[in-house]
Amino acid sequence: MTKPSSALLDVRDLRVQVGERTILHSVSLQAEPGSLSVLMGANGSGKSTLGMALAGHPHYRVLGGQALLEGQDLLALPAHERARAGLFVSLQAPPDIPGVKNNLFLRTALNAVRAARGEEPLDAFDFIASAKAAARDLSLPEALLGRPVNEGFSGGERKRNELLQLALLRPRVALLDEIDSGLDVDGVRAVVALIGRLRAQGTAILVVSHYLHMIEQLAPDAVLRLDQGCIAETGGLELARGIARTGFARAAEPALEA
């Protein structure tokens, strides 16, 4: 009998296919409350596939394995129920949603999550006050709250808008796919500060990044290197520093501990 796990997120032998190609061959990992893991890997190694499969994207077909969120079978849930259960997955390239106001999108998502937690919904007045405060913390112009989601946003504004979603939703588990992409120095500082606050509240976080300076600031509990759809190495900051020095095109080395 498989021993039950106390982890918020427990992924075991996950195998995922996209089209006719198997991308994840066997990925197992755990994320404890308040933990931070960094996922690194060459292009095509499966980092984004992991996030999309956990989120329930229909183009990512799970061939086998298991993913539990607080003991609940995540893979059995439709995508919106995974979000309501406390999973947040950011995108490398957040899309536009024409015709849908940003503040309406955010309030609807937040109240759906609050309902799943047994909390009362926020009215428009209380929501906009909290949204504006969170936007100021992230240096996101308040005017963008009233515009269609990501329409006409710069790359950095799209990423800050995802950070705004993260700050308001306060998920149980967050997988952030290159959240630093397109951000300036102040934006990276905002990422580090927000992740620190969420960890203190018990959110388990997995960050996909190759930006060593940010990784060092985040001080992760673990660094995982994905290679050909498997976790090939597990270590600490020294593993991230070694990858930054030599790249991924190198002979396999023993896992390095911080």
TrEMBL record:
- Species for this entry: Oryzisolibacter propanilivorax
Which SMART domains does the entry link to? AAA (SM00382)
Start and end residues of each ABC transporter domain: 9-253
Superkingdom of this protein's organism: Bacteria
- SUPFAM superfamilies, from UniProt? P-loop containing nucleoside triphosphate hydrolases
What name does UniProt use for this protein?
Fe-S cluster assembly ATP-binding protein
In alphabetical order, the GO MF annotations are: ATP binding; ATP hydrolysis activity
Asked if the Swiss-Prot or TrEMBL record annotates the protein with the keyword Ligase, the reply is no
Q: State the family named in the UniProt similarity comment for this chain.
A: Belongs to the ABC transporter superfamily. Ycf16 family.
Q: Which Pfam families match?
A: ABC_tran
InterPro entries attached here? Answer: AAA+_ATPase, ABC_transporter-like_ATP-bd, ABC_transporter-like_CS, FeS-cluster_ATPase_SufC, P-loop_NTPase
Keywords assigned = ATP-binding, Cell membrane, Membrane, Nucleotide-binding
